[in-house]
Design a protein that fits this description.
By secondary structure, this protein is mainly alpha-helical. Helices cover 71% and strands 0% of the residues. Helix 5 packs antiparallel against helix 6 and helix 5 runs antiparallel to helix 8. About 32% of the residues have low confidence.
């Protein structure tokens, strides 16, 4: 009876001691305690970093020790672990896809400008539309020259598909208006489009371009887009609200 009681107390004391001490020290095992968060992988530690404690550096060292060999995290994963959004990073488009994105953008502007040339009432809006037709036709011509010299083809991407769909929808909306209402709607669209294009050039297209000739052409295109935006804002300011 006395031996049974001794064994029972020994079991209880051993169990209590295990909850407040670190678990086994076997290689590859991240030690845990009752008072520390439990993590299954090193990535869990990166994404759910606990409050700093005297043992936190030890926890990071142990996490590094169990990191699978050859498993390094990319900049995007690091950004995610730090709570930084990945929006604005270069889109995963190649040179061939960028080539078609440029043509899609030019064609959309030409189609909208041709409609504005016929429908607009304001002379400044008509003049702006004529400028857009000439400039974007010239841009398409220069684009073809760059593609030939750099041996770049044209290929579809989700970006070009979305742009084409958006252009069709915007044209359909424009057709519903006329007169002064059309003038305002067209210029509002121009300002929005050119702002978006500047963002795409800066954050997606220029950083993603591989061929130097294409990258230089994109930078030149950016200056034209900025000029078109500035002129659109000037024309918009002359319209009666």
């Amino acid at each position: 009876m006395r031996n049974q009681m001794r064994a029972k107390w020994l079991f209880i004391l051993t169990t209590l001691g295990a909850t407040v001490s670190f678990a086994s020290h076997t290689p590859g095992h991240v030690e845990t305690s009752k008072y520390a968060p439990t993590y299954n992988t090193a990535q869990d530690i990166l994404l759910n970093r606990p409050a700093m404690s005297p043992d936190s550096s030890m926890e990071r060292d142990r996490a590094a020790a169990v990191m699978p060999e050859g498993n390094s995290y990319s900049d995007r994963n690091t950004a995610a672990a730090m709570g930084v959004t990945t929006e604005g990073m270069a889109a995963s488009v190649n040179d061939d896809q960028i080539a078609l994105i440029l043509k899609t953008s030019n064609d959309a502007e030409i189609n909208a400008a041709q409609l504005a040339k016929r429908r607009a009432d304001n002379e400044h809006v008509k003049e702006y539309a004529r400028m857009m037709i000439e400039d974007h036709q010239a841009s398409n011509k220069d684009r073809r020259r760059v593609l030939r010299s750099a041996n770049i083809n044209s290929d579809k991407s989700e970006v070009s598909k979305t742009m084409k769909k958006d252009a069709r929808e915007k044209i359909s909306e424009l057709r519903k208006s006329k007169g002064a209402e059309f003038d305002r709607a067209y210029m509002d669209m121009q300002i929005e489009r050119h702002r978006n294009m500047l963002t795409d050039l800066d954050q997606k297209l220029i950083p993603a371009a591989q061929k130097p000739e294409l990258r230089d052409f994109l930078k030149t295109t950016r200056s034209h887009v900025q000029n078109h935006l500035s002129r659109a804002q000037e024309v918009q300011s002359t319209l009666i609200q």
